[in-house]
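Postdoc handover notes: sequence design on the structure in folder B. Input tokens:
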């Protein structure tokens, strides 16, 4: 591994040339934002930008209570983060790029991580984009504001900025815009951007797909895993004003107004969040209808055909966190898109990961769909390696053509009222028409 420098319209940038010949640019600032203000794009810098290390992640619960100190070990810490180090700071609006060297007009896959809108970042072990760079694609991952920093809403903030809430979604939208403007300088096609996200990342992408603000950003296809879709009770998107009363105790604890609120340390903000937190916390730290990015109820908007007119790929897992909810949501989205003249495909991931009895749990597919099982602690088999090859090749084909069908898979047709989809299981892959 060595460093590489080149000129861009933004200024010089220094990245990494990996031993496999791909390039990696880490921690590129795409925007800046004060606490509870909307992001301002960053399109230039002085000197040589050092893109050889990852940027900070947004402060989150694990910032204040190290996961390695907890007993028992948190499940997802052991699965994806154990042994790694992360920096945390509210100055967290960074993205990472993996690209083939000498790329030209390459398709772009932009990944938005999950984490219940409460945690995560774009550089966990399973999110490295080398596998796609080797296929000729450019893979981008992003950080965005989370939890109370990303999805808090208050009347005083609305009076200050004209609207409030959805700060994390505006970060994502700004990152997509940055990629659309600048990815050509890294060898990418600014009009061939595939959005890929899982769990809260998929839920975010669904809102972006329905937003009029995403129409001119070069989005050419969308893959949503275990989170996107249509469900009236799960992942409801309520008006932002409905959250004001919920946060009353937090607002009181933080001080007299936004000027005081911005003087608090991140730890003090999280302490204040605890004044309001109850079992409904996740219903308020999430996207809301704000009249701008999300102009109306998403279920109504989807029924009116407001989604981006691009191909869609949807998936869920057999042991997903809420399998009886997430799979029907994804399937209903596919049906709606196809009935309105679009094209949407669905697959179910049922491979039980080796090494314990966790099964095909929520997020299990990420080792395979991003292509990083070599970094996984589990005793992966030849079938796992073949499954990774097939899934990354299928997603690569989807990004390039809008169709995930490839040689080696059963015939894969859009998911419609016949209900046929592909099942990726423990011993093979088959077309099914029953429940995932």
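Designed sequence:
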């Amino acid at each position: 591994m060595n460093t590489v420098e080149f000129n861009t319209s933004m200024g010089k940038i220094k990245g990494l040339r990996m031993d496999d010949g791909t390039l990696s640019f880490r921690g590129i600032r795409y925007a800046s934002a004060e606490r509870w203000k909307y992001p301002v794009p960053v399109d230039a810098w002085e000197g040589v930008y050092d893109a050889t290390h990852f940027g900070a992640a947004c402060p989150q619960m694990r910032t204040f209570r190290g996961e390695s100190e907890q007993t028992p070990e948190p499940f997802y810490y052991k699965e994806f983060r154990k042994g790694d180090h992360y920096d945390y700071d509210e100055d967290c609006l960074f993205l990472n790029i993996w690209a083939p060297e000498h790329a030209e007009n390459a398709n772009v896959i932009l990944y938005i991580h999950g984490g219940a809108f409460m945690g995560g970042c774009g550089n966990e072990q399973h999110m490295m984009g080398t596998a796609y760079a080797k296929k000729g694609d450019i893979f981008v991952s992003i950080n965005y504001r989370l939890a109370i920093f990303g999805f808090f809403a208050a009347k005083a903030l609305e009076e200050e900025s004209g609207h409030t809430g959805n700060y994390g979604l505006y970060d994502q939208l700004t990152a997509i815009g940055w990629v659309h403007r600048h990815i050509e300088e890294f060898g990418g096609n600014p009009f061939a951007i595939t959005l890929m996200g899982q769990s809260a990342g998929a839920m975010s992408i669904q809102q972006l797909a329905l937003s009029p603000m995403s129409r001119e950003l070069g989005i050419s296809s969308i893959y949503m895993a275990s989170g996107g879709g249509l469900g009236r009770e799960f992942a409801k998107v309520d008006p932002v004003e409905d959250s004001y009363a919920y946060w009353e105790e937090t607002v009181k604890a933080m001080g007299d107004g936004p000027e005081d609120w911005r003087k608090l340390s991140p730890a003090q903000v999280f302490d204040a969040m605890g004044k309001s937190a109850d079992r409904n916390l996740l219903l308020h730290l999430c996207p809301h209808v704000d009249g701008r990015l999300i102009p109306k109820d998403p279920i109504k908007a989807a029924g009116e055909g407001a989604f981006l007119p691009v191909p869609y790929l949807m998936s869920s897992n057999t042991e997903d966190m809420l399998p009886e909810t997430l799979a029907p949501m994804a399937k209903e989205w596919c049906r709606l898109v196809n009935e309105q003249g679009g094209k949407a495909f669905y697959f179910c991931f049922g491979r039980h990961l080796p090494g314990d009895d966790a099964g095909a749990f929520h997020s299990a597919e990420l080792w395979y769909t991003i292509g990083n099982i070599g970094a996984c602690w589990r005793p992966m088999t030849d079938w796992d390696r073949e499954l990774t090859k097939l899934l990354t090749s299928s997603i690569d084909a989807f990004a390039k053509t809008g169709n995930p069908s490839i040689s080696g898979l059963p015939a894969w047709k859009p998911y419609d009222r016949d209900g046929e989809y592909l099942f990726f299981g423990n011993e093979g892959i088959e077309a099914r028409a029953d429940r995932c």
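Context for whoever picks this up: The CA atoms of residues 401 and 422 lie 18 Å apart. Don't rerun without checking with the PI first.
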